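Appendix B. Extra example for self-study. Work through it before the problem class; the solution is given directly after the inputs so you can check yourself.
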Amino acid sequence: MKTKELTCIGCPMGCVLTVQINQGKVQSVHGNSCLNGDRYARQEVCAPARILTTTVPLAGDDNHLMLSVKTRNPIPKNKIFACIQELKKVQVKAPVHVGDLVLKNVANTGVDVVSTQNIG
Amino acid sequence: MRKVRLVIIGGGPAGLAAVLGAKHAGEDDILILERDKQLGGILNQCIHNGFGLHTFHEELTGPEYAARFSCEIKNQNILYSLNTMVTNISKDKIITAVNPSEGLFQIQAQAIILAMGCTERPRGALNIPGTRPAGIYTAGTAQKFVNVYGLMPGKEVVILGSGDIGLIMARRMTLEGAKVKMVVEKMPYSSGLKRNIVQCLEDFEIPLKLSHTVVDIEGNRRLEAVWIAQVKEGRILPETRERISCDTLLLSCGLIPENELSAMMGIELSDQTKGPKVNESLETNIPGVFACGNVLHVHDLVDFVSQEASMAGRKAVEYLREPKSGQKHEVPVEAGNGVRYTVPSRMCLEAMESSLPVRFRVDQIYKDGFFCVYGNDQRIMRRPFRIATPGEMVQILLTKKQLEGIDLQRIRIELEAKINEN
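Solution. Structure tokens for the complete assembly:
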């Protein structure tokens, strides 16, 4: 049995959650004031995931050197730096629009990276 | 002289929402003056997500949030001038501006919405002793370097101040390969959103040193180290001094509404918010001049900026249709026990719509208390809360019904709560 402490990010309360984990399975969540805390703790312990936002170099537009991008869905937390490394090699040409594909299946996460900017 | 019915100063989140608010209220003769080369303001460099949860019910990045508004403005054929710096506004609403294509020019406006946003407190405003080497930036400047120009300001970073921009930049610099050694916060609590502490610091094991501040700066040409020390009850404890070697110091020590233009034109400013004092219509002491967004008071969420600005746009159109003549009966909205300020700071019951959002900040962290509203000395609202922190703006909705039937002389917002000790 392992115990893990988390801070809930569901609302400004910031409850300190104590999670009991047995063989990779959540046994109990304590310290939460509402159901959101319970849900957050279970997700965070089993498969913490984040949306990654970053920039890639942009060619073909005098006013913009960089293009802001994001992963379309959350990626596993431990893949963040692998994704950043892969995106270092990408260059996009203007014009480009919000939602345009920048990189497919980044770092084998099954998640695509898309533009978050309209340029050109 | 060119004449425009409604001019909006600033094309950031507040300006864009104000314009659409005015357009939807039926005004067509509108012009936005924006000093940058694109619309969107600070959102363009805020590439992280978390914007728009209230407005669009999804998590957008800053540029995406801005794009929703700027696309709509282009679709509606609303006029805007980029690269245009307003240098003066006179009391009778003559705007002096300059840009590369038109040179210096003037516009006579009938109504004006101030939406210039805010500015970061620089080192000079913080009184940090030490040398003046390169490598000290405000967090927002560093953010522009990294996200807009693709340039890294340094490799080993200390961040002073745990406001949201500081937290966001701790993560951003880390992702781009810098070593962020710590975030130092003078107060015993962070003024940033909890989610940012988790996602920007804890995710990357960046220490947050509460009740600490930077007391000295070392380095001649380039920053070599900062000295930090513990702060107790507002005093620095010299015996706790510690040297932290670094080549970059980012400052995230608060934002100040940018009101040079407002002051020049004689607008009355609040000592608390550093923004204009406004009434229930977000109108300043000069009739027909409105203010919204961070130029009025610093917000934590852009969604609230958009809501507020949209109302300013609507109210400006009401003014254009029917410029009010004569004195209105305005009563003060006072910040009572535990409340630092309120926006608006005065109101007129007759001019109030069926409900009115009042926004305010508390002065400390409070748990399990009540937000109370008094009309004269009669309590008209008592809303429970679980937690209230200075970092999170509070919004309550006053309704006209609650206030009618009282011979209203003043309104007071006040807290009933114990200070949170832990």
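Self-check: Chain B is about 20% helix and 35% strand. If your reasoning did not lead you there, revisit section 3.
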